[in-house]
Specification:
Spore Coat Polysaccharide Biosynthesis Protein SpsA, Chain A, 18 helices, transmembrane, Glycosyltransferase 2-like domain-containing protein, about 10% strand, Nucleotide-diphossugar_trans, transmembrane helix, membrane, alpha/beta
Length: about 500
């Protein structure tokens, strides 16, 4: 009889097993059954082209909405359409570790420049006792520069080595949220009137973010059963970042935009907002994991028996790439960031385990969310490798008898045409990346804009070395119980 621990470890083993079986069987079949592998590659490439078509369609939809929403005066919309909007209170969490003061200052300045009433803002600066001296110096500067900019600023210091937690952003949030709950209770605020926003410390929000958020919250049929997800841009330090970082940053933005437009598989990511009611009902952020930003969605999904979703916000929040002063260090930071994001594979065993406790959640919904997480990490780990390497392996290894077959003779042409169709997504991404570039701090030579287009030629290599490989490492670590700690992304600006 298996123990609960052994059962859960078995669930953790499954995603990695599916990925390594695909890789191993792909090589075996390329050697011993190359025709079978050729058929698989053709089917997979058709599947991938369909995914690209889906990506292009929803990116165009999201792009149109993105530009439309930013033109609306949301302060006026609130004033004229939502009579009781000023009953809402905003809690904004900013977690601090070892970031430079300039990064913290810019985040707070963006909040200060919000067109929404700052008297409705309570800012929580959540520091780490592991960096106590640094965090306390940040606290002092926040008081000096922003002490009277908002209704209230709370400072918390997450103690070192608390039991049963994984040190990182999730455990920091969990600790500070206990303190904030006491603060909210002391104020006598209704939980349903309190909106929580969790920003990464480098987040610079659009001036209309909170007005738009409040509008969406007020018109939502059930605002306590939804999170609110903006468009994540990584362009604060875009001009100073290496090309590989820029390409991967834009790729993340476009993936987010298509997810917003589709909505059917939309999960919270990075900076987002939600009701304080939902946060309390879900038991606050999970303190033992790395992927707290997406896990809080699944906690709410379970707490509300499957009746929870994410509302798209077609408005940007700007963050930093993981740039460092050294090029190689920047690439290393990117690798670690991608590995940390791919560690979201830990949701697969969590969902399989927790869904058994919730018979009221429809079976189709359980299958859907397990598939979304599992297939997402499988594609992330393997798509680029299958297309660029495994797809060619049977063509290289087939013997003479196979080389005379019709399917073998036509396969290169079929694959070439399929991949040509798939290039549409690449060209569209390159084209859309230019309008998203921030205004440069100084006049940039025109040839740099051409480089911004040409850099997309790096995408195939980037998808393998700083996307697929760190993803494979993440699922393999989970497979063998080599659990990942929280790597704080180093972000530097010139």
């Amino acid at each position: 009889m298996l123990t609960d621990y052994q059962k859960y470890r078995f669930y953790e083993f499954l995603p990695g097993l599916s990925i390594w079986l695909t890789l191993i069987l792909g090589i075996v079949f390329s050697i011993f059954k190359p025709l079978w592998m050729i058929y698989f590659i053709i089917v997979f490439d058709v599947y991938w082209v369909l995914k690209v078509v889906n990506f292009v369609f929803y990116l165009l939809v999201a792009w149109r909405r993105f530009h439309k929403i930013r033109k609306i005066n949301w302060k006026e919309a609130l004033y004229h359409e939502i009579p009781d909007y000023d009953s809402k209170q905003h809690l904004v969490f900013l977690t601090v570790y070892n970031e430079e003061w300039g990064v913290v200052e810019d985040a707070l300045k963006s909040l200060e420049m919000s067109i929404y009433d700052k008297n409705k803002f309570t800012i929580i600066i959540a520091g780490e006792a592991r960096k106590e001296e640094h965090c306390k110096s940040i606290f002092v500067k926040v008081k000096e520069n922003f002490g009277f900019a908002f209704d209230h600023i709370l400072f918390t210091l997450h103690p070192v080595d608390l039991p049963d937690e994984n040190p990182g952003k999730g455990s920091n949030l969990f600790y500070s949220e206990q303190i904030v709950k006491e603060y909210v209770d002391g104020k006598g605020w209704k939980y349903e009137d309190v909106i929580v926003t969790v920003f990464d410390i480098d987040t610079i929000c659009h001036e209309s973010y909170f007005a738009y958020l409040t509008y969406l919250y007020c018109i939502s049929p059930d605002p306590t059963r939804t999170s609110f997800q903006p468009v994540a841009l990584y362009n604060n330090n875009m001009w100073e970042s290496p090309s590989v970082l820029r390409v991967m940053a834009f790729g993340t933005t476009f993936w987010m935009m298509t997810s917003l437009a589709r909505q059917d598989a939309l999960v919270t990511f990075s900076s987002h907002s939600m009701s304080f009611t939902a946060l309390v009902k879900a038991g606050f952020h999970e303190k033992r994991i790395v992927s707290e930003d997406s896990r809080i969605f699944y906690q709410c999904l379970l707490a509300y028996e499957g009746n929870y979703n994410v509302t798209p916000m077609y408005i940007p929040v700007s963050m930093d790439t993981v740039r460092d002063d050294n090029w190689w260090k920047s690439i290393t930071n990117l690798y670690k960031q991608q590995r940390r994001w791919a560690w979201g594979v830990e949701h697969v065993p969590y969902l399989i385990w927790e869904f058994k406790k919730h018979p009221n959640i429809p079976l189709w919904k359980k299958i859907k969310w397990v598939f979304v997480e599992w297939e997402g990490k499988w594609s992330w780990s393997l798509a680029a490798i299958i297309i660029t390497i495994l797809g060619r392996l049977p063509l290289w290894l087939a013997d003479d008898s196979i080389r005379q077959s019709v399917i073998f003779l036509n396969a290169p042409h079929m694959l070439e045409k399929l991949m040509s169709l798939a290039m549409v997504g690449l060209f569209l991404s390159a084209f859309f990346s230019l309008p998203l570039l921030p205004k440069p701090k100084k006049v940039q030579p025109k040839y740099l804009y051409i480089i911004m287009l040409l850099q997309w030629a790096l995408l195939p290599l980037s998808m393998i070395f700083v996307s697929a490989i760190p993803s494979i490492e993440a699922v393999t670590r989970l497979m063998f119980g080599k659990y990942l700690g929280f790597d704080v992304s180093q972000k530097k600006r010139k």
